[in-house]
């Protein structure tokens, strides 16, 4: 579903991704871990199409499309979703209106009719329950005045509404207490399917207790330097990253 | 951009006018350029006005002649040559086109985006259709219904003939001839406008709109509007249109006076979309408007405006809160793009006790435009326990535009409570990216963000206007993030 080959990317002239390769098949969950500054969030931004980054080499295919050729909005419409580490606030725009616009733009892209108000509201009710999001939040302005936990739950709620093929969760666990973490994980697990893949970017193995990955990758200095099964995350938790760094420099 | 090719259209429409009706007897249909007592006598005579109105006009002219064009506004423009303007021309026929295919495609595209129906598009662009007949019949049935309630809604010219006592009593009572340069000019030379009177205790059952006035013959250069809400009455009045309005007259100096008698309420909403000029600001309309209302005991006046057009906007819809417990409100969204300049705001003059005013102003600047809020909150000695809340926000879309705030607050009574809040922000690239990542196009993203920003004001517009105004904001700002 997603093939990243030898990807290089710069920001302001500094190379952050230095030949990253990764293969993700439908239905898989890949966790990406790594020390601060290794390029995890850059990877998320580059895949989503943030123009602050310059792609200097490599290729990314998504389904049968050249991802790097697509605009940000078309990547989203093709089914790529990014749960932001820091979701922005949009004052005066209700969550509902925002989502309805998004849902219908994606449907239009696929040549489908706009969703009826009734069906849409039904879906909102069903999907907001997955992350135990208060119905009132749906009518509030996008992320405005939301607590940290509510913002993250709102990201997962949006994912559930847009039903992407690939969801990238960028440190969705940061700033969450254990209860909120469980709720977020429960939402993600409810959306697991044989067609839908996830990239879970995290610092902590704790999230992976609840969202169990098929693969764990260590990103270091802009490359994936080690890959393994979920046990790798436990090992990182126990031993830190120093042994990986030593392995890389050896 | 929405306005590319306007020059051509203007040329097309205005050039065509002269094919009809103006080839003969120019002397009597159109006054020669220039302004003197003779011009004013001609206007008054053509309109068959009573002697007192002629005298009123002449006095205004004498006052105006002594005045100097003001320069305090934060706008720059070449001053109009007042002697080069023709101050009277007979109502023109609209250029008649045979089908919508003859209408400028750019104009049609804008109208389609606004969601204006086929029929409506035809009417607005002057295409000859049966619909015109329909609109007359709709307007006629409206008039009948209003007539049953004793509501007078007609052109100012008709009002002068049919209701001279009301016109004489209220004309110039809120905006005196001496008020300012443009108001004095308007008083001397106004040719038409709207007149509205709501009798005691009557709640006008529909939004009154210049739109349905059958005798409307294109908006005049010097319009005069007078709305009188008698005791305990209510009226909601809509002015303007979201469709792009073009006019061959560069200078517009209108005067609007509102009178809310005891316990009455007037809601006055404006959507202004005059031609803003080309990329370099050439050819746009200068809009110098004086709008003011007076509130008597426990009455309320609410101004709501969405300003997106004109090269220069100079406009301060104001409230004189004379009566105790009276309420004044001003809700404004002013969008400037390209080289547009807007200096707009309000004055809230508190005279009565327990008077209350609210000001919500949302400026949106894009391109190379300059957008200023200018407001005065004046609490007079007599205004015990007066209250005001002002909020002035500015949103910048580009690095080249400017937003300015000039709030004046004068308090002469220590029991007053005056609050002022102001913010300036730049539209966030992160907000747009967030929308794009959800599959929303940039155009829709800007529309969402801007409409969210202006929501507090748009919510005050009557339903049918609000929907169009939202689309208008988006169109005015197309492709403007940078």
Q: Which secondary-structure class do the elements of chain A indicate?
A: alpha/beta
- What level of helicity do the residues of chain A show? 40-55%
Mean pLDDT figure of chain A: 92
- Percent helix of chain B: 25-40%
Radius of gyration of chain A: 18 Å
- Please outline the major beta sheet of chain B: 11 strands, mixed
Stretches of chain B where pLDDT is under 50 for at least 5 consecutive residues are 1-28, 126-138, 211-219
The number of domains of chain B is 1
What is the CA-CA span between the terminal residues of chain A? 33 Å
Structural domain count of chain A: 1
What oligomeric arrangement do these chains adopt? heterodimer
Tell me the overall shape of chain B. globular
N→C terminal distance of chain B: 15 Å
Number of strands of chain A: 12
CATH class of chain A: Alpha Beta
List SSEs of chain A in N-to-C order: EEEHEEHEEHHHEHEHEHEEHH
Q: How does this structure look, described?
A:
The complex is a heterodimer of chains A (250) and B (482). Chain A is α/β, with parallel strands linked by helices. Chain A has one domain (2-249): Rossmann fold. Chain A is built from 10 helices and 12 strands. Chain A has helices spanning 40-48, 72-77, 95-109, 117-130, 135-139, 148-162, 178-190, 206-210, 230-239, 242-249; strands at residues 2-11, 14-24, 29-33, 53-62, 65-66, 80-83, 90-94, 141-142, 166-170, 197-201, 215-220, 223-228. In chain A, the strands form 3 sheets. Chain A has a 6-stranded mixed beta sheet, sandwiched between helices. A 4-stranded antiparallel beta sheet of chain A has the order 2-1-4-5. A two-stranded antiparallel sheet of chain A has the order 7-8. In chain A, α4 packs across α6 and α6 packs parallel to α7 (178-190). The longest helix of chain A has 15 residues, at 95-109. The radius of gyration of chain A is 18 Å and the shape is globular. By secondary structure, chain B is of the alpha/beta class. Chain B has one domain. In chain B, strands 1, 2, 4, 6, 7, 9, 11, 12, 14, 16 and 18 form an 11-stranded mixed beta sheet that branches. In chain B, strands 3-5-8-10-13-15-17-19 form an 8-stranded parallel beta sheet. In chain B, α11 crosses α12. Chain B is globular and about 65 Å long.
């Amino acid at each position: 579903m997603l093939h990243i080959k030898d990807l290089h990317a710069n920001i302001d002239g500094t190379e952050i991704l230095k030949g990253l390769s990764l293969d993700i098949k439908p239905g898989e969950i890949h966790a990406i871990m790594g020390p601060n500054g290794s390029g995890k969030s850059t990877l998320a931004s580059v895949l989503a199409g943030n123009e602050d980054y310059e792609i200097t080499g490599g290729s990314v295919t998504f389904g049968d499309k050249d991802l790097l050729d697509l605009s940000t909005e078309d990547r989203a419409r093709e089914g790529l979703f990014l749960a932001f580490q820091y979701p922005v606030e949009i004052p005066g725009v209700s969550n509902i209106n925002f989502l309805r616009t998004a849902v219908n733009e994606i449907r239009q892209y696929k040549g489908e009719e706009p969703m009826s108000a009734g069906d849409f509201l039904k879906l909102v009710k069903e999907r907001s329950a997955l992350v135990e999001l208060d119905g009132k939040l749906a009518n509030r302005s996008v992320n405005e005045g939301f607590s940290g936990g509510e913002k993250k739950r709102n990201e997962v709620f949006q994912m559930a509404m847009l039903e992407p093929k690939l969801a990238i969760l960028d440190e969705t666990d940061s700033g969450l207490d254990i209860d909120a973490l469980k709720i977020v994980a429960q939402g993600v697990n409810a959306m697991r399917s044989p067609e839908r893949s996830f990239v879970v970017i995290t610092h902590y193995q704790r999230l992976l207790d609840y969202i169990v990955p098929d693969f764990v990758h260590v990103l270091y200095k802009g490359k994936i330097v080690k890959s393994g099964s979920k046990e790798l995350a436990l090992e990182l938790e126990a031993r830190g990253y120093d042994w990986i760094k030593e392995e890389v420099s050896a | 951009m929405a306005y590319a090719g306007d020059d051509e259209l203007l040329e097309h429409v205005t050039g065509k006018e002269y094919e009809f009706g103006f080839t003969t007897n120019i002397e009597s249909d159109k006054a020669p350029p220039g302004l003197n007592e003779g011009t004013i006598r001609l206007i008054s005579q053509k309109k068959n006005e009573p002697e007192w109105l002629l005298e009123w006009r002449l006095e205004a002219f004498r006052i105006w002649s002594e005045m100097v064009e003001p320069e305090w506004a934060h706008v720059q423009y070449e001053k109009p040559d007042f002697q080069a303007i023709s101050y009277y021309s007979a109502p023109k026929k609209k250029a008649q086109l045979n089908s919508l295919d003859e209408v400028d495609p750019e104009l049609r595209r804008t109208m389609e985006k606004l969601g204006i129906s086929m029929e409506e598009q035809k009417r607005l662009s002057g295409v000859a259709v049966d619909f015109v007949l329909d609109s007359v019949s709709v307007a006629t049935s409206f008039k009948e219904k209003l007539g049953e309630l004793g509501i007078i809604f007609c052109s100012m010219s008709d009002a002068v003939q049919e209701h001279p006592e009301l016109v004489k009593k209220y004309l110039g009572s809120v905006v005196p001839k001496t008020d300012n340069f443009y108001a004095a000019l308007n008083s001397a030379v106004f040719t038409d406008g709207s007149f509205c009177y709501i009798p005691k205790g009557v709640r006008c059952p529909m939004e009154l709109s210049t739109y349905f006035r059958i005798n409307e013959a294109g908006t005049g250069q010097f319009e005069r509007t007078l709305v009188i809400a008698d005791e305990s009455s209510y009226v909601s009045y809509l002015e303007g249109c979201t469709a792009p309005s073009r006019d061959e007259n560069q200078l517009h100096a209108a005067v609007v006076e509102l009178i809310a008698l005891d316990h009455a309420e007037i809601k006055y909403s404006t959507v202004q979309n005059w031609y803003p000029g080309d990329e370099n600001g050439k050819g746009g309309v200068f809009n110098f408007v004086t709008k003011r209302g007076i509130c008597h005991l426990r009455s309320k006046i609410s101004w709501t405006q969405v300003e997106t057009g004109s090269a220069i906007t100079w406009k301060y819809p104001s409230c004189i809160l004379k009566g105790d417990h009276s309420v004044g409100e001003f809700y404004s969204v002013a969008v400037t793009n390209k080289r547009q300049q807007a200096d707009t705001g309000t004055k809230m003059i508190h005279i009565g006790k327990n008077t209350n005013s609210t000001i919500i102003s949302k400026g949106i600047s894009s391109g190379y435009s300059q957008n200023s809020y200018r407001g005065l909150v004046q609490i007079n000695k007599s205004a015990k326990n007066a209250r005001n809340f002002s909020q002035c926000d500015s949103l910048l879309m580009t690095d080249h535009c400017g937003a300015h705030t000039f709030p004046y607050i004068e308090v002469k009574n220590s029991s007053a409570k005056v609050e002022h809040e102001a913010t300036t922000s730049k539209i966030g690239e992160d907000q747009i990216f967030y929308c794009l990542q959800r599959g929303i196009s940039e155009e829709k993203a800007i529309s969402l963000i801007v409409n969210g920003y202006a929501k507090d004001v748009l919510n005050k517009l009557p339903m049918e206007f609000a929907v169009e105004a939202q689309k208008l904001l988006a169109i005015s700002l197309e492709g403007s993030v940078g």
